[in-house]
Amino acid sequence: MRDGDPLRIDLPPPVAAILSALRESGEEAVLVGGCVRDLVRGDQPADWDLATAAPPETVAAHFPASTWENAFGTVTVLDPGGGRGIEVTTYRTEAGYRDQRRPDEVRWGRSLTDDLARRDFTINAMAWLPDAAGSESGHLVDPFGGAGDLEAGLLRAVGDPDARFGEDALRLLRAVRLATRFDLQIDPDTEAAIREHAADAASLSGERVRDELMRILAGTAPLSGAFEAMERLGLLAVLIPELAALRGVPQAKPLAGDALDHSLRAADALPPSDPVLRLAALLHDVGKATTLADGHFLHHDRDGAHLAERILVRLRAPRTETSRVVRLVSHHMFAYTPEWTDAAVRRFVRRVGLDLLPDLFALRSADDVASGVEEPPDGWPELRRRVEAVVANDPLDAGQLAVNGDDLVAELGIPPGPPIGRLLAGLMEAVLEDPGLNSRDRLLELARAMASG
Prior knowledge:
Oligomer: single chain
Strand order of the largest sheet: 1-10-9-2-3-6-5-4
Low-confidence stretches: none
Number of helices: 23
Distance between the termini: 85 Å
Shape: elongated
């Protein structure tokens, strides 16, 4: 497919209605960007983005149920059917990017080609122009050859790649994501410009980097390819130097490769439906770069947890996400043997946390796959079965004790405060050792003995 070729599209009714209303008012209106790329590829777009020659106030006047609260001419038209809002952006030209993120000057335009020229990559610089109001027939507008690049398996910047990356440094990382997602080779001139601007990625906010990384981690393509590309282009050492430091760290495992290869394989072994778990796999051995001594990685789980927290704080990750990853890194080196008592299994569950166990076992499985080993039947798969048994039958937290703090205050005459907390902790330890103690009478008797010294 090439510029000017006919293209018929089954438009969602809200999209068709917006295009038709603008066209009937004498304004040019088109589909643009990622949705056109997807349509050219034969995929169903996840989002529909529209652009128009009409200024934003005109667009907003056409659609009373709309919002416009930005300087970039994007009006969000609400779907009367309750679906997601549809963005309609006025053609514009931009100038000056002193912060390498936002243009210093935005001007509304009337030229679709000029609007497409400001976009990042040719595959995102295509539009679809309907033949008439309400028509699902139209033609491709592709002045920069994006459709041909898709056909050739090429990712290429629009115009001068040096200028495009100088405008917004996030495009450096977006190039990796798009090339990985669509299995594209990066055009040589575009790749050279990425290498030249790689250091600029240090100026990006943690939130923007994290958002792009999570999109990569949520992608269906093997994410190892994306991180290998980041390393090759000089981006990994800038954005996650702690991970880049694993290159060259030796691994004594059946599968060849160093600690970075192993970490990437582990992340590949987990489902893209859980990008945070994949992130934990990516970082699970990050402590190995700082703990290698005499062929061993003593306490690399502990050091790795500190490094993972530092990375995620830098990336402004949500606290729940940071906690989940740090805990997984901290606990991933558990060493089970069949000699563990049931009390030891219960303490393991308490130490790790019931909420984390499914993730931890999934991470351990991915770690095994990445190492080229298979756990023996009496390894962690047996532990998993034993965990299921104690979870089903035994008290594992203070809320499951047959007494609570109020009971201890009433029966022992001890005022509320830290001593009550210490007594409950002691009772919990006793019940972990022997669940048969978990009755009101026996726990009160034990509490009295503890309180009396």
